[in-house]
């Protein structure tokens, strides 16, 4: 669209002369015959430049220019003042009023066009800079919001999954949704008795070592930590980002956890701590999403599958990894198991087939432990 220029003069001949000259050069021209009309036209038409006569009845060009500069919306609007008075004195007054340039009558046409073109180019650059600044501010606000959301999501998910969610490559997981997941429950055997007979400092030391080892393993296998309460943890796979091998990841992670707890047990038993470890794994559908209230939200899964994993964990003897029939069906070619028959579990009307994972022989992917990569 052509640049718009507002010509302000109380003499119609002067207005026509300037308007015709600018229109021939491709500018869109609007006119005003007084200072008050000029201010109204500026607000309505939003011109890119104002050619403003100095001597006008009522409100002088200087007064109009001052009003233009006082308005934040037009503070940077280019103003060229035009006068037939002494150019030296009027130029100082015009600059004090906020004018960008000055022309004397009679108008030198080439000079007028050159000054108009120059100031419009400067305004274009200023507008682009202002747009870039606004865009930058919006991007900064969006990035800060993303960082805040990323930190909240990292409470629930691995860093890789949290970043994927924030980037928009997956749906908002905090909305309630239903999905098939593989759930892993684990806890320490003998922890309650240990906590009752040990000093608080010893209990906290054991928990720090245990959580650190289990936490690294969860991140390596990109599991979603639903919660941990003391020595107990619940992790699930296939949410928020679907994965094709959720049961395999769960079993692989459980076996890795058992190996790391074995290392911890060596130290703990030297200290006289009678502790051990058990895991339960189940597969099924659950309703997943944010649970809580404003200011304190947790990410939770609700369904029979979570109860089954918890019950299997409760039945597991020291170092056992008990898996349900559906999990075995998905990883049968990768595991060596011990069949335990039907277990009577609280909350389940029929015996549940369970299997203890003796050995995992599936492929082991490269470690994603940040500490190992550094």
Topology:
Elements: E1 4-8, H1 12-24, E2 28-32, H2 35-45, E3 49-53, H3 61-70, E4 79-83, H4 87-97, E5 101-104, H5 109-153, H6 159-166, E6 177-189, H7 191-197, H8 200-220, E7 224-229, E8 232-237, H9 246-270, E9 276-293, E10 296-302, H10 304-315, E11 321-324, H11 325-331, E12 335-343, E13 352-360, H12 370-373
Parallel strand pairs: 1-2, 1-3, 3-4, 4-5, 9-11
Antiparallel strand pairs: 6-8, 6-9, 7-8, 9-10, 11-13, 12-13
Helix pairs in contact: 2-3, 5-6, 8-9
Short note summarizing the structure:
By secondary structure, the protein is an alpha/beta fold.
Structural commentary:
The protein is of the alpha/beta class and 374 residues long. The chain is built from twelve helices and 13 strands. Strands 6, 7, 8, 9, 10, 11, 12 and 13 form an eight-stranded mixed β-sheet that branches. Strands 2-1-3-4-5 form a five-stranded parallel β-sheet, sandwiched between helices. The longest helix has 45 residues. It is rod-shaped and about 105 Å long. It starts with a strand and ends with a helix. The C terminus is likely disordered.
- What's the name of the CATH homologous superfamily of the largest domain? Nucleotide cyclase, GGDEF domain
What is the percent of helical residues?
A: 40-55%
Q: Please state the average pLDDT score.
A: 85
CATH architecture name of the largest domain: 2-Layer Sandwich
Largest sheet: 8 strands, mixed
CATH topology of the largest domain: Alpha-Beta Plaits
The number of distinct β-strands equals 13
From the helix content, strand content and strand pairing, which structural class follows?
A: alpha/beta
CATH class of the largest domain: Alpha Beta
Q: Please compute the radius of gyration using only Cα atoms.
A: 38 Å
**Total tally of structural domains:** 2
Give the termini distance in whole angstroms: 56 Å
Question: What is the string of SSEs from the N terminus onward?
Answer: EHEHEHEHEHHEHHEEHEEHEHEEH
Q: What count of helical segments does DSSP give?
A: 12
